[in-house]
Amino acid sequence: MRTRIWAVSAATCLAGGALLVAALGPATAASSARPHGWAGAVGTAPAAAQRAANARSISLVAHQIFNQDVDVKPAGFSAGDYFVFAETLSSGGKVVGRDEVRCMVMYTTFRCEGALILNGKGQVDVAGSLSRYGSTLAVTGGTNNFVGARGQLVVGRSSGDDTPLTLELLP
User: Fold this and answer.
1) Longest pairwise C-alpha distance within the chain
2) In the 8-state DSSP scheme, what is residue 146?
3) Is the peptide bond before 74 cis (omega within 30 degrees of 0)?
4) Which of 87, 93, 114, 169 is found 20 to 30 A from 63 (Cα to Cα)?
5) 5: left (phi over 0), alpha (psi -120 to 50) or beta
6) Which has the closest alpha carbon to 59: 86, 24, 100, 101?
7) What is the pLDDT of residues 103-137, one digit of tens each?
8) Which of 136, 32, 151, 161 is nearest to 85 (CA)?
9) Contacts by residues 104-111 (CB-CB < 8 Å, ≥ 24 positions apart)
10) Which residues have C-beta within 8 Å of that of residue 147, sequence separation ≥ 6?
11) 81-102 pLDDT per residue, tens
């Protein structure tokens, strides 16, 4: 049975061992208590850290459509395990793209990298660590309309299978 955990259950897992259209959660967990989706992060970055000066904000909603766990030795939820997931991205109720992400379980964080692929616009690549202390990833580049992209992706608290994302692109 799948349950959402970014806000509560991921904190327990971490303690034991979590776009953009026209210009452009808690994660689910399998019965093994592995987090999926963006929701694995428990905390939120301080407000000042979430807003870069002169950034263009793009609000999206990610809806999970796929997730898969990969359990490496030792058996059970432990450092080195990873999970992959894919989500549709919508803005204003309209699907505008998808994301594809891989997160590895570290000791106190999830190290994630992924791509936000926007229909007809290009893609934005992101990477960083998610933990109970923060859920902000660095924008590491992009293609087409997003060549040279820089900024950050702020992952909000999930509701059901939906997770709010805010892409903040610097000029």
Assistant:
1) 47
2) G
3) yes
4) 169
5) alpha
6) 24
7) 999 988 999 999 999 999 999 999 999 988 779 99
8) 161
9) 104/80, 105/17, 105/34, 105/77, 105/78, 105/79, 105/80, 105/81, 106/79, 107/17, 107/79, 108/14, 108/17, 109/14, 109/18, 110/18, 110/35, 110/40, 110/41
10) 122
11) 999 999 999 999 999 999 999 9
Residue 145 in 3-state DSSP?
helix
Q: Model's pTM, two decimal places?
A: 0.72
Nearest alpha-carbon partner for 13 in 63, 69, 85, 97: 69
Query: Exposure pattern of 38-76 as b/e (b: 16+ CB <10 Å)?
Result: bbbbbbbbeeeebeeeebebbbbbbbbeebebebeeeee
Contact call for residues 110 and 130 (beta carbons, < 8 A): yes
